[in-house]
Amino acid sequence: MALLSQQENVATLDPYLIPSGELDTAWVLRWLDDAGLPQHKETFLAARVDGRVLHRLTMDELAILHVTSHLHVASLRRGIQVWINLQADRWVSAFL
């Protein structure tokens, strides 16, 4: 019961966490291709990075995944931001 309450609190604080859970590792690998970062697919696959993990990646975790180029980090962060904005637009239009 406490775990469920904790999950609800996290979802309230981060409304994108639940929708990002719909994205599996295969989607993330395709997204890396689309983002122009296919060289990171192998490490993301080995780490089983899915949408929830991708959404919450820290700089330390990116370093563990061998994403060390500042340009690659910026590309990943911007790609995640664009995805979030697209999701927000979808949710707004669904309620109108």
Topology readout:
Blueprint: H1 2-13, H2 17-20, H3 25-34, H4 41-46, H5 51-56, H6 59-64, H7 70-95
Descriptive notes:
This protein is globular. The chain has a single domain, classed as DNA polymerase, domain 1, CATH 1.10.150.50. 73% of the residues lie in helices and 0% in strands. The longest helix is centred in the C-terminal third of the chain and has 26 residues, at 70-95. It has helices at residues 2-13, 17-20, 25-34, 41-46, 51-56, 59-64, 70-95. With 96 residues, the protein is an all-alpha fold. It starts with a helix and ends with a helix. 10% of the residues are buried. It is built from seven helices and no strands. The model is unreliable at 1-7 (pLDDT under 50).
List keywords for this structure.
73% helix, mainly alpha, globular, 96 residues, disordered N terminus, 7 helices, DNA polymerase, domain 1
